[in-house]
Amino acid sequence: MSRSDRSPDREATDVAFTALLEDSAEELYEQAPCGYLSTLMDGTIAKINTTLLEWLGLSRRQVVGRMRFADLLTVGGKLYHETHFAPLLQMKGEVSGIALDIKTSDGQRMPVLVTSKVKTGDDGGPMLVRTTIFDARDRRAYETELLRGRQAAEEARRQAEADRERLREALAVLQQSLLPAELPRVPGLEAGSYYHTASPELLGGDFYDLFPLDADRWAFFLGDVCGKGPQAAAVTSLTRYTLRAAALHDPDPVTVLTTLNTVLHERYTSGDTRYCTAIFGVLHPGGDHVSVHLASGGHPSALIQRADGTAHYLPTPGGMLIGVLPQAQFTAARTRLSPGDTLLLYTDGLTEARTGPERELYGDDALRAFVAEQSARGSQALITALTGLLAGFGDGLDDDTALLALGVPAPLPSHPVSEDLR
Q: pTM surpassing 0.85?
């Protein structure tokens, strides 16, 4: 192909290649985009290229034969060179990509990556060390920025965790404000309670209480508000105070639940329907027993553990959800607790827990069987057993659960008096 047939681009390419081939080895060494130096085995610099000299701000006369490689390093770099770099180089004959800082004539630090290799003679003995030094300022800046970003992310994570912890503490305090600090002592009655919070970051809607009506009667209730969070907590607070106020006005269980239904339905009529389930009852201790009169609004039936080792539900069929309709039907029931008997109220987090490999509902029958298996040793013993049952559900227990047990203590066993003591 003749010169006239060549394109301008092809000619420009040929010129570039020609100029590249005309670079001398000396020029390639001196003007390389990295630093080069050769040292004797004791570290004395024997040769150094212009690139590295410009980085250092030194002349060749100041460096060659007058300085050692370690003299180019910062104090920390010298220490690392003596304790790690040099021994490793002597042992392996080569060290690659070591991050160090060299110091310039104006006192600045310049981050570099250092690779050294020992050149050996024909007899295999070491002759000198050849070292390549790469400018790592951009890399160091990137690493610094990356570290700064990582530290910022870690600080944000710690702050978020601290905020969550403060939220948990605030929610725990608010949750406790929706429950009695402790149950009152009722003559002739033993009471026990437990509250399981499914999530420390969500307010639950389960509630219970026990309080006096007059000198001879006590009221109790337990229920579950629909939903979780601040809205559910507001409904819970309204429900608790309404039940207490209504009970002091007229303690009839059906009347109390009817009053609560009216209040909730009138309060939440804007489309944001809020409702709850609840059992409300009155205790009337008398002699060695306690009479119980209760009513249920859409709540699971109360369970009675008898002193003879049996357990059965106290049916309250037909009780409707509280707050959904302007007029609601509630079902009343009566029973009598004798010594050793315990009345158990609970929310559906207990019976709707998931169990086994098939994740089946725990259910009412399993609860009744569990209670029947427990020795009739009083309310607190039953609550303790149920607390262990709840813990055994693990992640199958995904809802808040409230327990309230009310029982008549069994008489203490009498001990015959020894003839010697009569």
A: no
**Residue 184 DSSP one-character state:** P
Output the CA torsion 13→17→18→23 (10° steps).
150
Sign of the Cα pseudo-torsion (258, 260, 266, 272, in order): negative
Q: Quickly count: other Cβ atoms within 10 Å of residue 125's Cβ.
A: 9
Residue whose token pair is 């003007």: 31
Place of tokens 């609840």: 278
Contact 117, 129 (CB under 8 A): yes
Residue 229's nearest CA partner among 197, 257, 260, 261 is 197
Nearest to 179 by CA among 239, 120, 228, 231: 239
Three-state DSSP state, 422? coil
pLDDT tens per residue, range 266-300: 988 776 778 999 999 999 998 889 999 999 999 99
User: For residue range 86-132, what is the model confidence (pLDDT) as tens digits?
Assistant: 999 988 999 998 899 999 999 899 999 999 999 988 888 888 999 99
